[in-house]
Input
Amino acid sequence: MMTDIRWHWAGRRILVTGGTQGIGGAIARGFAENGGTVHICGTRPSLADYDDPPADVIYHQCDLAVPAERAALVAAVGEIDILVNNAGMPGGVLPEYELDAFIRLHEINLFAVTDLCLRFHDSLARNEGAIVNVGSLASFHGLDFAPAYSAAKHALLGLTRALAGKWAADGIRVNMIAPGFTATRQTEPYARDPEIVESVLARIPMRRMGRPEEQANAVFFLASSAASYITGQTMIVDGGRTGA
Output
């Protein structure tokens, strides 16, 4: 049975990119249910266009691949205390061995993250804020079917460490989580294939997929004052896969 961890975010202003569903939805929902003022963004016209989105959040339509739309998002959100860079394109969707696809995936998975971090720097510094990036096990392992995704997630690990070192003096903490195989809409096609599931679970000591809420709890910890002396770190949340 899972322990029900209650975090309190009253008075905290939070942006969760891609916070409409999956891991991002669980993160946004947890912040909102426990008192936070939560902004999320997605590509669809309204929050009603998503299945089971979080409630009590402020929705912004934004294509993070477009720099002008990122700038408009920052202006619309204003001051924040916590930035969670969750949005991203999964690996293996585009033909990543072609340069155009490689660049497109980096625009979303790396350049957008960097841009938002830089644009929100002053606000986060004023509020002694925290950034939590959402990486992947591909931050540590190269996936031969997804070279662009692997490269971007490796780079996100380095970016997290670099910004943490540079911005510690400004009072900003920067950390990352690296989710393992988690039950979301993106992984659903794989989860329907018994052979893939058997192969994946055989390498996970806990012998099950993760839940979005378990990834969210790692974000809540790193964003909270409980992690006040932690920066530049990556928390791997994978049921023991990496350590096995």
The chain has one domain: 13-236.
